[in-house]
Amino acid sequence: MTYSFFADKLKIAERIYKKKGLKGIWFYAFRHIRVWMWSPLFLILSIFSSNSKDRFFDLISFTKDLYRTEDIRKIIKLMKNKGEARDLKDLDITKIKKSDRIFLLASGSTVNDLTPQDWEHIGKYDSIGFNHWLIHDFIPTYYFFEAIGGTYLDRHNEQERSSSFNIWLTWLKYREEAYAKVPFICDYKVWYDYTVDFKDLPEKFRDNLYLYAAHGFRATSVSFIKLVLLFCLYMDYFKLFNYNWIIKHRATINGLITFAMLAGYKEIIIIGADLKSKDYFWEVNPESYNSCPLPNKGEPEKHHSTYDVKISKKFHFCLPVDVFMDMLERFILRPYGVKLYIASRKSALYPRFPLYTGFKENQDINKIDQ
Questions:
Q1: DSSP 139
Q2: Mean residue pLDDT across the chain
Q3: pLDDT score, position 157
Q4: Is the pLDDT of residue 37 over 70?
Q5: What is the pLDDT of residues 52-86, one digit of tens each?
Q6: Is the dihedral of CA 94, 260, 239, 186 positive or negative?
Q7: Is the peptide bond before 351 cis (omega within 30 degrees of 0)?
Q8: Cβ proximity of 127 and 140 under 8 Å
């Protein structure tokens, strides 16, 4: 790096400081992230860490993810300028939102425990379905999707698709009319890894398509993630409708929680995030969902991979889904006055998070517990 490089940076910093003060300097540094920008964090963590090597890899992984997020957002901006797509920030939530309560619809087997009265109750409020939720008859307020079936599309050979993607596409076409007015929201950061367009999607979905790129906050250190979350809280990044701060650490459900908070919801209820098992609602009761082919059952495992400590760290360089969710609730949701609930006590997230008592069965359970 030359003298002129540092001189230019100092001039920029001086100009920002005069306008916005020290907080503006931090914001600029965060937006134009470099590994050395995070060196103070690394040094602080090294003092309290018995394994500074791990913290170094946390720093590298975290920074690479920030780079990639910014790169994908630039691509989304170019697509928007060409009229090929819309940014999630273009979605007017105020015209959609019915209340301050929202249900996040995961695909675990406890979905089948809900009664018709429960679904009637859910229908009075807003909801988010994602990925294979299309299989269920309940139509959510929003629909999110990303990489269905993992590497479902080889970028070097568009003819190669996994059965999971084809099944998802079949259900997509089957639900085209029912979902015609549902915002169709894609994490383009994941989608872009496998394809760059949406030509396979039915036209009605493309007409209502919105893109975003979620932060991954990739790191395996609780102390590192805690420091980053507290920094973001101090900088007030989680302002209303600031969808640049959707954080999808380890699992989609964490990204949906941050979206719900940024969209102004104050009560978030998680349905079907069982984690203790890999059984999905259509596997337990397949005769109720036979309108189209169903996804193949994966390898038998005792619990969901996002809940597995070793898999999360080794293959995804993340904390398990429940650990990050707990930190998200304590350091971000709670300060913003957002409450998080679990719909079933069969979930591994209970009793870490309170049981939602809007369903009659849960009201009865609470009476027994008392």
A1: P
A2: 81
A3: 44
A4: no
A5: 556 666 777 888 888 899 999 999 999 999 888 89
A6: negative
A7: yes
A8: yes
Greater model confidence, 186 or 227: 186
Nearest-10 crossing angle of helices 52-81, 222-234: 50
In the chain, the domains with their CATH numbers are 55-369 (3.90.1480)
**Structure-token pair, residue 241:** 């409708």
Which residue in this structure is represented by tokens 């690394």? 42
Task: Compute φ and ψ for 353, nearest 5 degrees.
Answer: -115, 145
**Full-prediction pTM beyond 0.90?**
no
Span 173-179, mean pLDDT?
94
Terminal Cα-to-Cα distance of the chain (whole angstroms) = 66
Q: Coil, helix or strand for 214?
A: coil
Phi, psi of 326 (to 5 degrees): -60, -45
- DSSP result, 236-299: T---TT-GGG-B--SSHHHHHHHHHHHTT-SEEEEES---S---BHHHHSGGGS-SSPPPPP--
- For residues 235 and 117, give the distance between their C-alpha atoms in angstroms, rounded to a whole number: 43
- Tokens 């299989």, residue? 135
Q: What span, in angstroms and rounded, lies between the C-alpha atoms of 335 and 342?
A: 19
